[in-house]
Specification:
Thrombin, subunit H, single chain, alpha+beta, 2 domains, 22 strands, seven-stranded antiparallel β-sheet
Length: 666
Amino acid sequence: MRRILSVLAGALLCAFPALADEGMWLPSLISQRIADMQAKGFKLSAEDIYSVNQASLKDAVVLFGGGCTGEVVSKEGLLFTNHHCGYSYIQKHSSVEHDYLKDGFWALTRDQELPNPGLTVSFLDRMEDVTSVMLAAPDKELAAAELVKQATAPGNGLSASVEALYYGNQYFLFVYRVFTDVRFVGAPPSSIGKFGGDTDNWMWPRHTGDFSIFRIYADKDNNPAPYSPDNVPYTPKKYFKVSLGGVKEGDFTFIYGFPGTTQEYITSDAVRYISEVSDPAKIALRTLRLDIQKAYMSNSQAVRIQYSSKNASVSNSWKKWQGEMKGIRKMKTVQSKKEYEAAFEKWAKGTRYEGITEKLADLYRRLEPINYAREYTSETALAIELPQFAASYVSAQPENRQAVKEAFLKDYYMPIDVQTFIDLMAEYGKNVDPEFQPLYYKVHMDLYDNVKDWAYALFTSPFAQGDYSDVEHDPVYEFRREFVKYYNEQLLPVYRDLTSQITELYHDYMQGQMEFEPGKTFYPDANLTLRVAYGKVQGYEPQDGIYYHPQSTLTGIIEKDNPNIFDYDIPQALRDIYATGLYDDQPVCFLATNHTTGGNSGSPVINADGNLIGLNFDRVWEGTQSDVTFDPEICRNISLDVRYLVFVVDKVFHVGAILQEVEFVD
């Protein structure tokens, strides 16, 4: 065990820098990167970024919900995050009568701020290296549970988890303070907050005002507490000052947030599956779903409201996978990985690492058909809405079933679901090997002449028509139950067994890579734990002869404005203010070289002085392969310029009072 820790420490403490601005660094270990950060312009210390002894920047950053980041910007718990991070909550508050998605929402007094049941924000209280404890433990699950129990014993809203890094070569305990009373304060209309829609998603130049505003509430002692009218705004240990000084190409930037998942150290076989098998299949299936949704949404305002959040959720990964697939192929990542593995095996000959890549290749060959069936089932049978609802209804306590029903029906339109069933299940039959199809499916395909007849039988069942008295024997519930049963009992056990074997081999392969490349600085893959990524404001050249500048402006919005296209129909107030001629060069978004991924949405983008200059919300399409391989020439993160947030609130909608508690600096 001492040898493992020694190898890991050597790889982490190595004096050689990572390539360009690649890397997602643990804040508690940022002292190992601070010299490089300061050499690139950063003016603060490692203690300013992360400290357990005094307030630091980490205390102004939150995990927003289950997969975004937010930042506290006032001493009264005001919080910024992305519009798309708050989107589902904005949608839940919206109706045809009060369409906050279309019209926006601004709470000018505290009693107008809207509660959001189920929404949490989590502050990292501390993180602790527990590698020695975990590696010495005969039962890691029990050891992790005991560490969590000890860490959360004081209560006061604490939660904790033990996370493995470097495929189990290092372990950290993360302790969070979780607040459950989070209220909606404001957001622009979707014509600003989602400007460009799916067309502009992942693209540059970008002109999306992707922000929403919330407030954290606590009890009178400033501790987490369930929603109560008696709660008061949370007083944070630290909050960000907002810089209005702007950015220019070459300026230092760093991002503090919760990146979700990366796979930087996987082998060529894993990369090939992503780019040649998995991504193409999922893209095709989601294209079907999106086309169906958009056809109905374009004809009805009510359906558009119902499906706006669902459509955005389906679309986001759909477009990301396209860029990822293209980027992996363009960079010839599979081939470069194969060459790396050949060099590794040559070096490893005669060591305990010899043959490890061949063993991984064999496991991936066995995993591929199972994983394909698993993913395809998830994207087809398990994506049908009505059976999902039936399962939720059955599992709910009797006293809660009415609420489950109302929540589902509020955002459900059966014609979309019927057509989705027909198209997806037809693709399932064509593309999933019969060896990996449940008997239930085969019986029903024999029973009905075609998928359309099966759909008719399913969606005219008693449950589908509103009779919930015998749901557990209804065909709709049976459909979900049988596919879930097959998924859980036939596909998942084999998938987990093979992936467990693969992970165990990666544990050793990771050590081997660190010994093979002693001059390389390794950073841990993202796993939705707090990280720091730093870089600079910089444009990029996506292809020969084209250079994208790193700043977009209001002029670009006007150039895209089109009242006949929903995603480009801006509010009249924005047209009017542009017509004055005073705001042609109003900044909107900017590019930087920070290494980001899903989960970084809403992350604070911070300048050399530690002040907020933007909100990260996306990556450029050509660089979405950065979850697998980072290209410093093309990988760029896209951020909302905080000056546009202020401009929209103050100049466009004249609700600047919302920002009176924010501390602005140059």
